[in-house]
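agent> fetching stored inputs for the zinc ion docking request
agent> found them:
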Amino acid sequence: MLKYTAEQIETITAHAQQTYPEECCGLLLGQVNRCQQPQVRCLVKVWQTQNAWNLEAAAAMAELTETNQDKMTKIRRYWIDPGEIFQAQRQAREQNLEIIGVYHSHPDQAAVPSESDRAVAWSSYSYIIVSVVQGKAQETRCWCLNEQNQFEAEEMLSLTAQS
Ligand SMILES: [Zn+2]
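agent> prediction call returned; pasting tokens
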């Protein structure tokens, strides 16, 4: 389960609309309660990143997925620079947080993970996907990998709605 506030989701959907028709991406910083099953991740900070998708990333991805390389544009892919991840990690630690997931957008596509999303996914992360249709954010969904390494929907709980 992922706990979030309405403001955090607004930040993510605004970013997704800004970069349309390209994909946006960013990191989710927060805390994880590992005592509970399934794990509860609490989103504290949304960390926007550049979409660093380029030929280098495409080559790395091609090795991972064997899928066709004809979609090498930011419209279909995202890639977060490892340097940016390192920086986010360091700041997170200073605030007693950790990276709990990744968000990205799907321009004119459903908020459902693609095969290339699965190829680079980590089992300990939550994946928020925003579907942006004609420049407007539509659906926001959250996913995580199960033990078979397949994505399944992760429950999202708005803290704002609760209080
Ligand atoms: Zn995707």
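agent> quick read of the result: Residues 104, 106, 113-114, 117 surround zinc ion (CB under 6 Å).
agent> awaiting further instructions
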